């Protein structure tokens, strides 16, 4: 028969065991995420948001508009003019459009236009026309249409910075349209039917 003292000892051990087990169960519960203000926050199961596709910027749209204006101005300055090369260039802090225009009789003129495309600042005939002049005869797609078609495949990059007629190794005549400058994207189109041949930062 147990005396009162051993009974009290056994009761204390039982209580201690229950306390230890309760602590283990509490420790096994998932910990709440702590917020910056010390409060508890439940773990988020929401999907990670994906970056949105870039949208045309006002600056990019204005630059493309200036490019189209430069094309109209340059072609209007040359009899029978057709632009086949256009590039936005900055020299000594001055930004302007450098434009090559094919004229009647297979002639070529090199022009410099203001950044907004409205003013011809220099015009001279090139006595040794580029081979690209002859490629225009095979280009069903005109330069303005090439820009519009390329814009749909520029992955949201805006601002025409260069356009030129060129050809592939298999002889396919192409338009290469660049948006966003050297760090932008180039879209290469078949000049006969507007088909996209390739596009990307190094497509040109």
Describe this structure in words.
By secondary structure, the chain is an alpha+beta fold. It has a domain of 142 residues. Helices cover 28% and strands 31% of the residues. It has an eight-stranded antiparallel β-sheet. Strands 1-2 form a two-stranded antiparallel sheet.
Identify the overall geometry: globular
Tell me the total number of β-strands.
10
Distance between the termini: 100 Å
Q: Please tally the helical runs, counting DSSP H or I stretches of 4 or more residues.
A: 4
Strand order of the largest sheet: 6-5-4-3-7-8-9-10
The main β sheet shows up as:
8 strands, antiparallel
Low-confidence stretches: 5-33, 40-44
The multimeric state of the shown protein is single chain
Beta fraction: 25-35%
Structural class: alpha+beta
């Amino acid at each position: 028969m147990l005396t009162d003292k051993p009974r009290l000892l056994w009761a204390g051990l039982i209580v201690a065991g229950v306390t230890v087990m309760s602590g283990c169960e509490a420790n096994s519960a998932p910990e709440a995420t702590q917020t910056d203000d010390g409060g508890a926050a439940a773990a988020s199961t929401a999907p990670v948001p994906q970056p949105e596709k870039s949208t045309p910027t006002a600056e990019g749209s204005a630059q493309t508009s200036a490019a189209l204006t430069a094309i109209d101005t340059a072609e209007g300055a040359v009899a029978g003019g057709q632009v086949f090369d256009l590039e936005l260039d900055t020299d000594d802090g001055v930004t302007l459009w450098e434009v090559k225009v094919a004229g009647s009789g297979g002639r070529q003129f090199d022009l410099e236009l203001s950044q907004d495309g409205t003013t011809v600042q220099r015009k001279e005939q090139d006595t040794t026309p580029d081979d690209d002049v002859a490629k225009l005869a095979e280009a069903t797609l005109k330069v303005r249409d090439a820009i519009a078609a390329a814009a749909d495949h520029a992955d949201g990059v805006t601002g025409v910075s260069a356009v030129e007629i060129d050809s592939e190794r298999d002889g396919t005549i192409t338009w290469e349209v660049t948006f966003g400058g050297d760090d932008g994207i180039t879209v290469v189109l078949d000049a006969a039917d507007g088909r996209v041949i390739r596009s990307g930062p190094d497509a040109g």
